[in-house]
Amino acid sequence: MALHKKSPLAVPLAAGLALALAACSGGSDSSTGSEEGGVTTITFWNSYTASDRPFVEELVKRFNDSQDDYRIDMTIQPGDVLTDTLLPAYQAGEGPTLVTLDASLVPSFVEQGVFQPVDDFYEGNGPDPETLPQASLEATTYEGEQYGIPFGATPTMLYWNKTLFEEAGVAGPPTTMDEMADAAVALTDPAKDQYGIAIADREAPSAWAVFMWANGGGIVSDDRTESTFGDPESIEAVDRWATLMRDPGVSPVGMNGVDGDNLFGSGKAAMLINGPWVSAGFTEAGLDYGIAPVPAGAAEQTSVAISTNLHLNAEASDAEKEAAYAFARFWNSEESQTFWSVSTGYPPNLSTIDPSALAENPTAEAFAGETNSRFYLGGLENYSQIDTDVVVPTIQRITADEGTAADLMPEASDQIDALLQD
To answer: What is the span of the domain harbouring residue 59?
Structure first.
């Protein structure tokens, strides 16, 4: 894979999906690196606050204990707090040496000049970039330079409720979009307050992007220069699923990601497209569920990719950069990634780790076997405007029957084109 090119991929949702990846804080609140007594201390900010926090803590502790030259001083903040405070901290000269961010946020920070390229990380004794998540590398390539090192990356997959499928006499899991649509209809039962599928329109991995990609459409072109939201393939896909949501009502209209997770977790929805972070809750709820690849459409089979990546302070000294790279190599070692994956359910960053080595955690094994994913609106400085101001409200209007996809999407596509040229 060539690292020095603009990515044809795109990135998901940012804020809400970092909710999946969780982490820790230990040590002092200092945010700048330091060198003392032959030990280089660097600071590391992230928003890993949920169930995977102890495993990030453990791996940072293992790194600190593994050698005497470097020390990681890690600070945790909720995702929204981190993104609100990060730029002011950098501007004040108090930003962290390393920070993890959702890939959708990277272009705006690169434009502010607070991150430095990390191409030389891949030219040294680090992991072979061909073995790392290619979508993550593509999504953090900006203006021909690489600004990220994969930290946590995963595709999304199809969760399906085996009990509901069996009760309805529906074979599962579906392998094509046509099969998924038919199953969604067959599994919808208003008398039981039961839905065939949970489809969120915001604050979740974009099922709508998957529907459009599968049909040969999308939101922006591969080179990010023009909108494809108004293309016939995109309109056809959105119209199909919006119609199914309204009649026969395969999914509630207007849900956010948490609503969709709760609906599936309560046994009231038969299918859901999401990442590995929800599996522990579904298991605790006693659901008998399966995890399968997102079904293929007429044009392709793919899913939304989600990634947080390590980014290096533009003002980091040579010693701090060396320490940061040492930690990044440790994090992306086979031993560390196997521990991470088995502990959290996330697939390992390294493709050299056989999924069968993760059999102790079936979620990790399933997600490690799914490699065909792409990012939603990645590499775009105005990602948020396109998503929040155009795509989401347009989908909401269509599903609420306030206009047809054929009428509303071309107009929205023009808005996206204007933002791409801005």
So the answer is: 15-155+306-374
Task: Report CA 185 to chain centroid distance, whole Å.
Answer: 28
Alpha carbon 415 to chain centroid distance? Answer: 25
Q: Does an H or E element contain 276, and which? A: none
285, 184: one domain: yes
Q: Between vectors from CA 64 to CA 62 and to CA 69, what angle results, nearest 5°? A: 140
Task: Say if residues 69 and 40 touch (Cβ distance below 8 Å).
Answer: yes
Angle between helices 318-331 and 334-344 (to 10 degrees): 60
Is pLDDT above 70 for 67?
yes
Alpha-carbon span 290 to 191, nearest angstrom: 25
Indicate if the pLDDT at residue 86 is higher than 60. yes
Single out the residue of 171, 346, 179, 165 nearest to residue 264, CA to CA.
165
CA distance 41 to 317: 11
Helix (H) or strand (E) holding 357: none
- Whether residues 334 and 413 fall in one domain: no
The rounded distance, in Å, linking the Cα atoms of 209 and 218 is: 6
Phi–psi pair at 208, nearest 5 degrees: -65, -40
Please give the Cα distance from 2 to 169 (Å, whole number). Answer: 48
What stretch of H or E contains 178?
Answer: helix 177-186
Query: 201: which 2 tokens?
Result: 């329109």
Give Rg (Cα) of the chain.
Answer: 21
Q: Are 165 and 149 in a shared domain?
A: no
Whether the pLDDT of residue 9 is over 60: the answer is no
Q: Specify whether the CB–CB gap between 151 and 310 falls below 8 A.
A: yes
Whether 274 and 322 share a structural domain: no
Instruction: Read off the pLDDT of each residue in 159-186 and give the average, rounded to a whole number.
Output: 98
The amino acid present at 80, given as its one-letter code, is D
* CATH code for the domain in which residue 242 is found: 3.40.190.10
Contact of 146 with 3, CB cutoff 8 Å: yes
Rounded distance between C-alpha atoms, residue 250 and residue 244, angstroms: 6
Say if CB 267 and CB 161 are below 8 A apart: yes
Q: For 211-243, write each residue's pLDDT tens digit.
A: 999 999 999 998 889 999 999 999 999 999 999
Looking up tokens 């999504």, which residue turns up?
139
Same-domain status, 91 and 179? no
d(CA 40, CA 36): 7
Q: How many domains does the chain have?
A: 2
**Which one, of 171, 118, 104, lies nearest residue 147 by Cα?**
118
Q: Is the pLDDT of residue 10 over 50?
A: no
